[in-house]
Amino acid sequence: MFSHVMVGSNDVERSKNFYDALFGKEGRSDDKGRVAYRHNGSVFMISKPINGEPAHHANGGTIGFNLDSPEEVDSWHERGVQAGGQAIEDPPGYRENAFGKLYLAYLRDPDGNKLCGLHRPAQ
């Protein structure tokens, strides 16, 4: 359903350093200064807002990343905190709700965007 997600940043280099650490790989920059990360056919991007206004996070918005195991979620979360992200909500772990059993971890990136690392165990 989704082709890509892009977040705005007021300091793209700071955000690139954070996301390089979070994803464990270096993002690629284009001639407009945008940074992109590709994984399993999806693209996550960082950019200064093209309208020249300051970037800000979406209140109520969350960007979720599919990960392959609870251990990968934990590692993702730890790398994010070590790179300057803020751990938020409950500690990483399983939660059950109307969507089934999920292993989740939440962070805020340096610009305040809410991120979720998610693993769906086999049902």
Strand content: 35-45%
**What is the share of helical residues?**
10-25%
C-alpha Rg, in Å?
Answer: 14 Å
CATH second-level architecture: Roll
- The assigned structural class equals alpha+beta
Count of helices?
2
Measure the end-to-end span: 22 Å
- CATH topology: the name is 2,3-Dihydroxybiphenyl 1,2-Dioxygenase, domain 1
Poorly predicted segments: none
The tally of structural domains comes to: 1
Specify the CATH class.
Answer: Alpha Beta
Following the backbone from N to C, one meets helices and strands in this order, namely EHEEEEHEEEE
Overall shape: it is globular
Overall pLDDT level: 94
- Topology, number of strands: 9
CATH H-tier superfamily? 2,3-Dihydroxybiphenyl 1,2-Dioxygenase, domain 1
Largest sheet: number of strands, sense, barrel closure: 5 strands, mixed
Domain VOC: 1-120
Protein name: VOC family protein
Pfam families: Glyoxalase
List the keywords.
123 residues, alpha+beta, 2,3-Dihydroxybiphenyl 1,2-Dioxygenase, domain 1, four-stranded mixed beta sheet, 2 helices, 20% helix, globular, Glyas_Fos-R_dOase_dom
Give an overview of the whole structure.
By secondary structure, the chain is of the alpha+beta class. It is built from 2 helices and 9 strands; from the N terminus they run βαββββαββββ. Strands 5, 6, 7, 8 and 9 form a 5-stranded mixed sheet that branches. A hairpin with a 5-residue loop joins strand 8 (100-108) and strand 9 (114-119). The longest helix is centred in the middle third of the chain and has 13 residues, at 70-82. The two termini are 22 Å apart. It holds the Pfam family Glyoxalase. Residues 1-120 form the VOC domain. This is VOC family protein.
